Amino acid sequence: MPELPEVETIVADLRPHLVGRTIVRCELSFPTIVRHPEPEEFIDAVAGMQIESVGRRGKYILIRLSSDVALVVHLGMTGQLRLLDEVAPLEKHTHAVFFLDDGRQLRYRDPRRFGRLLVGSEEALLIAKKMPRLGPEPIDASWEAEQLYRELRRRRAPLKAVLLDQRAIAGVGNIYADESLHRAGLRPTRVASTVSRKSARRLHESLRESLQVAIANRGSSVDTYRDAWGEVGAQQEKLLVYGRAGEPCFTCGRPLTSVRIAGRTTVYCRRCQH
User: Fold this and answer.
1) Is 59 among the catalytic positions?
2) Measured between alpha carbons, how far is 262 from 257 in angstroms, rounded to an integer?
3) Is 264 a catalytic residue?
4) Mean pLDDT within 198-217
5) Does the annotation count 91 as an active-site position?
6) What is the pLDDT of residue 257?
7) Which candidate among 43, 110, 163, 237 keeps its CA 20 to 30 Å from the CA of 211?
């Protein structure tokens, strides 16, 4: 699933090309990809609207429209949001096409159909339970180590499970939870409330570093992720533990261990992480 760095990359790519453009019309080839409101209402809600901003909240892409609502895109496991010329061939599994006033098209493609499209105000989507209430943004300067420490202190779940909880921290998924815990030298199975203030500061720093480095490298294309131009990222070539179970740790050489936490495969080093 695309995580914060991948979604941030797509948003940064699209922003200068979409802001100020008008959505002339929308066509849906798989209407149930729209989760709110009904597909017909969705089409009417976006048609004729000017795009005022393109942003991100957690793993959600927020395209704010002139009608004071947002077109919200969640990429799910395999979703791709790409800006293409109208003459570009329509790829299989393209479920929505937004026709822009400059002749280009914003296309949503999703082979596994776990993603979703929404339209509405953020508050309305929260009330309708179509979007979750999200925790702080880990790359924002306002998010401090003490906040992370307080969140961990009240949780009895494994440390990895807390990092995956979008109500605790927005945008972190399996890749960057594993990478951040390794950088911080913390074992993912450890009970979150046992983490000291000093270790929480170290994890806070490693989370921010892991995410910012991944953004600089345009995300991790470990599976189907592609940026807004259909290109792969480069961060997958620099991952320390994710997807490397059984391979030697880059620090100590010991084979990396794989366990399941919160239903997700988790890779770590038994020697380097405590």
Assistant:
1) yes
2) 16
3) yes
4) 98
5) no
6) 98
7) 110
